[in-house]
Amino acid sequence: MALTKITAGGLADNSVVTASVADSQVTLAKTTGVQAGWKKLVALTASSWDGTESGFGANSITNTYEEYMIKGGNIQIGADESQVGVQFYIGSWVSVGYEWFEFNSSTGGATVSAQADGNASYIQILRSMGNDSGESGDFTIMLSNPSATDNDKRIYFTGTGYDSGTALKYHSGIGGVHNDAAMTNMRFLPNQGVISSGEFTLYGLVN
């Protein structure tokens, strides 16, 4: 059977091989449109979340990506003076043992730091949120190597939003739990009432 020779330069865009090519002769594949960067994996819209939801879904976080990012946008809560937190799925939903530190400052001049030293039921991301019209929050969470089994699971985050006193706040912090098994999912919850609305999107970094 005749073979078609592929030159060292590879195949041109839109070219077609019209003869049979033996497997042993194929040494170069030409691809287009494959780029590094953040890939959207799962997007959720909150509706009366009370903390019992299934998060992004079973095994939504895997070893496919070493770096993950979560964006929360236009998050609104049902009860005034509420906090928004996150929990990890590590074999099961972890509901105790978190430690975190969260710093926030507002346009009104107030500066507050809050923390939990290993006994919290979630990691606090946003605090003192208001539930009046227009009072909402946004955040970005970063996590590295969540599937590794040689590191305790941890995140770092930044966020902003209008609080119950109509002041614009800046939030930043860290949080984690002493568990080195693979983390495969995350979910969000309020400390009271519900998360009435908001967009939550999981991204993986393509190398």
Question: What does this molecule look like?
Answer:
This protein has 207 residues and is an all-beta fold. It has a single domain (37-206), classed as Jelly Rolls (Sandwich). The chain is 0% helix and 50% strand. The protein has no helices and eleven strands. The protein has an eight-stranded antiparallel beta sheet with strand order 1-11-2-7-8-9-4-5, with no helix packed on it. The two termini are 40 Å apart. The model is unreliable at 26-31 (pLDDT under 50).
Estimate the helix proportion, in percent: under 10%
Q: Structural class per helix/strand content?
A: mainly beta
Reported CATH architecture: Sandwich
Distance between the termini: 40 Å
Q: Provide the residue-averaged pLDDT.
A: 88
The CATH class: Mainly Beta
Tell me the strand order in the biggest sheet. Answer: 1-11-2-7-8-9-4-5
Write the element-wise H/E pattern from the N-terminal end onward: EEEEEEEEEEE
What name does CATH use for the topology?
Jelly Rolls
Instruction: Return Rg in Å.
Output: 23 Å
Shape call: globular
Largest sheet: 8 strands, antiparallel
Task: List the domain count as a whole number.
Answer: 1
Please report which band the strand proportion falls in: under 5%, 5-15%, 15-25%, 25-35%, 35-45% or over 45%. over 45%
Uncertain stretches of 5 or more adjacent residues: 26-31
DSSP, total strands: 11
Number of helices in the DSSP assignment = 0
Summarize the structure in short:
The protein has 207 residues and is mainly β. It is built from no helices and 11 strands. It has one domain: Jelly Rolls.
